[in-house]
Write a structure and sequence with these properties.
Chain lengths: 514, 471
């Protein structure tokens, strides 16, 4: 591993945006599930009594029933589009009652009960899929806003005024945020949405997933992150929108990778496994992965915890200086987790010269981690954001550093809540994977890797979808989130994201506010 | 340097088909029966193939109810949508409100494999909850060093001392110690095994426990009346639990034991004396249920010279009956703080039992002031108990706990013990603590739900101006 700075290069200009392989725009494009049967909340069954009259197909505006021309029978219902009992109560086209021969039955899909969990309820997963398919919410009968965890974000509500002070239109709203607030040089970076994509390393997710994330970041003028496994060649077109990560194992970190990006992230810790190192199983260390990581194929690779060269803020400063010596235009982000003294860590990061402090709460993460760490070590992000925000404010440096929060931010509402609690922006990860039809089974590491082809480098499994599909699904999700955020901002009567930062009055807590 | 402590693990499959979480339901009447690429053939975990082998050859307890990995590929790709998945109703009946089905499943996994449970996709549970779910442990970052413990790269010790420590040493003019130094027992793990409060008890089951205790070099606390001949070879690792009146009856057991437990009664001082008379080297512990005054009891006993106090809550960690029973961790914080305030905490060893169902509970219990925890039910679950409570109602045990082969049973217990120890190392490593003795009573390295809520959301959102100002 050669990581030493050979010679101080002349100030390098930041990479310029490049044209991507295929033109995909921000405009939502219909991108349905890649499986034969998408999962929905309901099951609609058509019995043999069906006479193929096509009445249901005529009635249903959601496209559950289709009768193709010339076909004798109506097709099998696309029941994932069904509004179910909501339709029974509120609509006059409820097919079950309208079928002349009573051939249709409706019931809750038993599969729904088997997916999801209190954090990502089945409805939240289904609503994210809806957004990834259509680019916006089309099925508002699903609760995609709140989980079922009885705490944190799920106990916070958006506190809308009866009438907003200013009457705003969508075009008045600016959803961008700036990332460099130090005012001491370095690239000025503005991203068009208040979030960027989390790090998922080469070797842990499939190339189509990685490229999809990067490409969507390019489309939305934001960032995606390489994770710790190096900078694979298929990400070449996306330099301008990539953050490269320097993690404790220093895998794949080279002078060249530091110089080709605009943001470099130091991963001191990660919320998925706070305080613990990484471990890439020997099986997953394929020749391609090993080459990227500059390691020997087939060996288990450990990222230690912590950086064994950093035991103080001064050491951390040395790290930041080291990056800036190689790439003076770069912004440096320090990714830390949430110990009791996370506020001190954040202040220290600022004084060491970081532009971004990225706090990663303990409940999030996508990578495989010991269950004991996910649940028990370090504090949830909902507590950490106001703690750090207030501490930085009291230190008088709040406006000199960008505070990015992550770890359990699931949807547009969580993004707004995190900002109102004091973050400048957020990082999302799980949401993107759910858009790619992750069902959160958690078996990312077993056997050949993810059975649904998202977090796998197995030659067969990782080819279950291509990068166009993944780009469009993630881009659709981004569009949906942005539309929701704009709608929220109109109701709040605020024009820009920074106006919402730390505005506790825009939130309500169900236990304490009323 | 002494050799590193290590617990060997070995894959030990269950004797009975375990209850799995998910069931695949096949609507055979919908199956076309002729698909060339039937999704069942494409299952990447080969569940259907294994199932086929099992039903044909009845070989090994592989069952798709237990092994379905939940990926839904077959459900979503079958041409005729003939397959669906449901939560196995039997799964929901496992355990109870506290010992949740998911807890039992993870304990089984660890007992079978000896591995720590690892999964992707972040945390899935509730934000917080009652009992142990209302606290988080700390980690170190940048400014505080950590320990890289899990793969043994930096050594973290899990040893604890059991016994009484003298606060001050004194020497006579010949430089000999002039104070009595009571016996001290070192356990390489911060837990002892105890007889579970229910179970299809049998000498074989006790032997599985005793054997595991011997390999772990810890103790198995068992009613003296239950110690049968087959356990003789483990006598150094079996702690007889006796009543005051029975001391002379179990003289032989007491003489050969390293650790003796005494059920608390009014004549405690005399009873301890009687035990010490039989065996001066035995560490003697007093077993007593927790109540609201336990901190005073602890003080009284410590002042009276008791070496070890074994406090118990019920199997759900609750103390006392009624609407709002106190939870063991909160009670223990009070005991610990009280003894620290009185300056006598280090004189006595505290053992906690009740409601410790997961390795994080063990770590959290130690943070709340226990030196050692006693585990019964988790090891009963290790040998496949389903917590159906048949045994308490005089019905047959569905998994024949009483017939467990001591050897394989003890290996499953060892697997679980190894997984728990490794998870404790994870917690210690993240905190940068190099031995579990230093974890005891470290409230400052834990975060409690009440405190975080008060300092964050209550402070921000409370409508009560006075309260807000105070916070
Ligand atoms: S499985 Fe049921 S009957 Fe058997 S020991 Fe456990 S609780 Fe008792």
């Amino acid at each position: 591993m050669s990581i030493a700075v050979k010679k101080k290069k002349k100030s390098k200009t930041a990479p310029a945006p490049k044209q991507a392989a295929q033109e995909i725009t921000r405009e939502p494009q219909h991108t349905p599930s890649r499986f034969r049967h998408a999962i929905g909340k309901y099951r609609v069954l058509r019995s043999d009594a069906c006479i193929g009259c096509g009445k249901c197909a005529e009635l249903c505006p959601h496209g559950v029933h289709v009768k193709y021309e010339g076909a004798q029978k109506t097709s099998r219902p696309k029941d994932y589009l069904c509004r179910g009992f909501h339709c029974k109560q509120n609509c006059d086209y409820y097919c079950i009652d309208k079928c002349p021969v009573g051939a249709l039955t409706l019931r809750i899909n038993p599969v729904v009960e088997t997916i999801g969990d209190p954090r990502w309820t089945p409805e939240m997963i289904l609503s994210t899929w809806d957004m990834a398919e259509h680019g916006r919410v089309t099925n508002d009968t699903l609760n995609g806003e709140l989980g079922d965890t009885d705490g944190g974000f799920d106990k916070l509500r958006l506190n809308f005024p009866k009438k907003p002070k200013k009457k705003l239109k969508p075009k008045d709203i600016d959803t961008s945020i700036v990332l460099n607030r130090r005012g001491e040089g370095g690239t000025q970076i503005k991203i068009d949405v208040p979030w960027y994509g989390g790090g998922m390393s080469y070797g842990s997710v499939s190339p189509a997933t990685m490229v999809g994330k990067a490409h969507a970041a390019q489309i939305w003028n934001t960032f995606s992150c390489t994770g710790e496994g190096g900078f694979p060649p298929h990400l070449d077109p996306y330099d301008y929108n990539m953050i490269t990560q320097v993690a404790t194992g220093l895998f794949g970190v080279r002078e060249e990778t530091i110089q080709r990006v605009r943001i470099v992230e130091f991963r001191y810790a990660q919320g998925a496994k706070p305080g613990l190192g990484g471990h890439l199983l020997g099986d997953k260390n394929t020749p391609a992965v090993a080459k990227m990581r500059e390691a020997v194929a087939g060996m288990s690779l450990f990222s230690p915890f912590p950086f064994h060269s950093v035991y103080s803020i001064e050491d951390h400063k040395k790290h930041v200086d080291w990056i800036l010596a190689m790439n003076p235009a770069a912004l440096v982000s320090a990714k830390v987790s949430t110990p009791t003294d996370v506020d001190m860590v954040a202040v220290g990061s600022y004084y060491a010269g970081a532009h971004i402090v990225h706090i990663d709460g303990s409940y999030g993460g996508t990578g495989a981690a010991p269950d004991i760490a996910k649940k028990n070590i370090a504090m949830p992000i909902e507590y950490a954001i106001p703690k750090v925000h207030e501490f930085l404010t009291n230190e008088g440096i709040r406006d000199k550093i960008t505070l990015i929060a992550s770890g359990g931010i699931r949807n547009a509402y969580d993004i707004v809540k995190a900002i109102c609690l004091g973050a400048d922006g957020v990082v999302v990860g799980t949401g993107e994977l759910v858009a790619l039809e992750c069902i959160r089974c958690g078996n990312c590491e077993s056997g050949r890797g993810c059975a649904r082809g998202i977090a796998s480098t197995d030659p067969e499994l990782s080819n279950m979808y291509d990068e166009n599909w993944s780009t469009r699904r993630i881009s659709n999700l981004y569009n949906g989130w942005r539309e929701q955020i704009i709608e929220i901002m109109i109701r709040y009567g605020v024009k820009t994201i920074p106006e919402m930062r730390g505005r506790y009055d825009l939130l309500r807590h169900v236990d304490y506010s009323d | 340097m002494p050799k590193k402590y290590h617990i060997n693990t070995e894959h030990i499959p269950p004797r009975f088909t375990p209850v799995g979480k998910f069931g695949i339901v096949d609507f055979n009447e919908d199956c076309a029966g002729a698909c060339h690429h039937c999704v069942k053939k494409e299952c990447i975990y080969e569940i259907y193939k294994k199932e086929g082998i099992f039903t044909r050859e009845m070989e090994g307890p592989v069952h798709y109810l237990y092994s379905c990995m939940n990926c839904l590929r077959c459900v979503q790709n079958c041409t005729r949508a003939a397959i669906t998945r449901v939560v196995n109703p039997e799964f929901r009946w496992l355990g109870d409100d506290y010992w949740k089905p998911d807890i039992i499943l993870t304990l089984w996994y660890q007992s079978e494999t000896g591995k720590i449970p690892v999964s992707g996709a972040g945390y899935r549970g509730k934000f917080s909850g009652p009992g142990f779910d209302s606290m988080w442990t700390d980690m170190s970052e940048i400014v505080r060093p950590t320990r890289d413990g899990i793969h043994g790269r930096e050594y973290i010790s899990t040893s604890v001392d059991v016994g009484r420590k003298v606060p001050i040493l004194a020497f006579d003019d010949k430089r000999r110690t002039a104070v009595d130094i009571p016996p001290l027992m070192e356990l390489p793990v911060p837990f002892v095994l105890s007889k579970p409060p229910f179970g299809d008890y049998s000498p074989k089951m006790y032997e599985a426990f005793a054997r595991a205790a011997a390999v772990l070099e810890t103790q198995f606390v068992l009613d003296a009346a239950d110690i049968t001949k087959n356990l003789a070879k483990y006598k150094k690792h079996i702690a007889p639990l006796v009543r005051g009146a029975e001391i002379s009856k179990y003289k032989k057991l007491i003489r050969s034991a390293a650790f003796v437990e005494l059920i608390y009664d009014g004549k405690m001082a005399a009873n301890i004396k009687a035990i010490k008379k039989i065996n001066t080297n035995a560490v003697v512990s007093v077993k007593i249920p927790l109540d609201v005054n336990s901190h005073r009891t602890a003080e009284k006993l410590t002042d009276a010279g008791v070496e070890v106090i074994h406090f118990t809550a019920d199997m759900h960690g609750n103390i006392g009956k009624g609407e709002h029973p106190e939870f063991i961790k909160d009670n223990f914080r009070r005991i610990h703080t009280h003894l620290v305030d009185r300056g006598i905490r280090d004189c006595v060893t505290l053992i906690a039992e009740g409601g410790i169902a997961l390795p994080e509970h063990m770590a959290k219990m130690i943070i709340c002031g226990a030196d050692v925890v006693a585990l019964g039910i988790p090891f009963l679950v290790a040998i496949e108990c389903r917590m159906c409570m048949n045994c308490t109602r005089g019905r047959a045990c569905p998994v024949d706990i009483s017939g467990v082969p001591p050897e394989s049973g003890s290996k499953r217990i060892l697997n679980l013990a190894a997984a728990w120890r490794n998870q404790l190392l994870e917690v210690l490593g993240a905190m940068g603590i190099r031995e579990v003795r230093r974890l005891r009573g470290e409230f400052g390295r834990a975060m409690f739900y009440e405190d975080l809520e008060r300092d964050t959301f209550r402070k921000i959102f409370s409508k009560d101006k006075k309260e807000k100002a105070k916070l």
